[in-house]
Design brief:
By secondary structure, the chain is α/β, with parallel strands linked by helices. The chain is built from 7 helices and 8 strands; from the N terminus they run E-E-H-E-H-E-H-E-H-H-E-H-E-H-E. Strands 1-2-3-4-5-6-7-8 form an 8-stranded mixed beta sheet. The protein is globular and about 45 Å long.
C-alpha cells in the first residue's frame, strides 16, 4: 500500500503539503521515531514518486511545505531541482522544509538558492523539548546545544513532541512558550504508537488535551497534530 503524499492545509498558515521520499535519515537515532522507514536508496524510484506528488501542487496559496521523513538535505539533487521548478511555475513564494540540527550548515546556501528564484525558505527543526537533558538522554535527539536562542539562530520553526512519560502540563506549556519566544512558528506533535519501544503516555496526553490544548488551539502560530496524519499526508491509501 502507498502513502498519501499530497494534501492541502486550510486553517492555520494555509498551504499545500507534499510528503516526499529521500535516501533516509542520516541521524536515525531518535528513540521515538520510525519515519526513517519511508526511504529508498534508489534515487530514480524516489524521483518518480516525488514528481508525482509535486505534480499535484497548484500554487493556490503561494505556499508549499515539502517534508520527507528526514531532512531536506537528504533529497536527491534532481528532486530539489523539481521543487525549485514547481515553485517558479506555480508561483510559490514561501517554501517550508525540515532539517535536523546536523545539517544546519547547509541552510544558508539553500536559502540563497531559493531566494534567487523569489522563494523564501522557512526551515523547521525537530527540537521535541527544550529540556536538554530529557531531549538527549531519553530521546537521543542529537542536538549538542542547550541554549534555545542558539538552536533557533539557523532555523525558523520548531517541532515539539508531547505525550511522553514524565511530561507535565507545566513542562509542555513551558516548551510551547519557549518555542514561541525564539521561533516564528511551533508545531506540536502528540506521540502515537509506532514501531519503536517508546510508547505514548496516557497521563501526559490527557494533561495536554485538558490543560494545554485549549490555550493554544486557536493560536495562529501553533500547529497541533493530535494524530501524526492530521496534515493529511502519511496515511495509507
Amino acid at each position: 500500500m502507498e502513502l498519501t503524499r499530497y494534501s492541502v492545509i486550510e486553517d492555520k498558515n494555509p498551504r499545500e503539503i507534499v510528503l516526499l521520499r529521500g535516501r533516509g535519515c542520516a541521524w536515525r537515532r531518535c528513540r521515538f521515531c520510525d519515519y526513517h522507514l519511508d526511504a529508498s536508496k534508489d534515487e530514480q524510484v524516489n524521483l518518480a514518486l516525488n514528481c508525482a506528488a509535486l505534480a499535484q501542487v497548484t500554487g493556490q496559496y503561494a505556499r508549499l511545505e515539502a517534508i520527507n521523513s528526514g531532512s531536506f538535505a537528504e533529497l536527491d539533487e534532481t528532486t530539489v531541482a523539481e521543487i525549485e521548478r514547481v515553485c517558479r511555475e506555480k508561483g510559490i513564494r514561501d517554501l517550508h522544509i525540515e532539517s535536523h540540527w546536523i545539517f544546519r550548515k547547509t541552510l544558508p546556501a539553500l536559502r540563497a538558492r531559493f531566494a534567487a528564484v523569489g522563494v523564501t525558505l522557512h526551515v523547521k527543526i525537530g527540537v521535541e523539548t527544550f529540556d536538554a537533558d530529557y531531549r538527549e538522554r531519553v530521546l537521543d535527539k542529537g542536538i549538542d546545544e542547550t541554549d534555545p536562542a542558539k538552536i533557533a539562530a539557523g532555523f525558523d520553526d520548531c517541532c515539539l513532541l508531547f505525550g511522553l512519560a514524565g511530561q507535565t502540563a507545566d513542562g509542555m506549556t513551558r516548551d510551547i512558550e519557549t518555542g514561541l519566544r525564539y521561533f516564528d512558528r511551533v508545531c506540536v506533535n502528540i506521540m502515537v504508537p509506532n514501531t519503536t519501544p517508546v510508547r505514548p503516555d496516557g497521563a501526559a496526553r490527557a494533561a495536554f488535551v485538558r490543560d494545554v490544548y485549549p490555550r493554544y488551539r486557536d493560536n495562529p502560530r501553533v500547529d497541533i497534530l493530535l494524530e501524526n496524519t492530521d496534515f493529511g499526508v502519511g496515511e495509507l491509501k
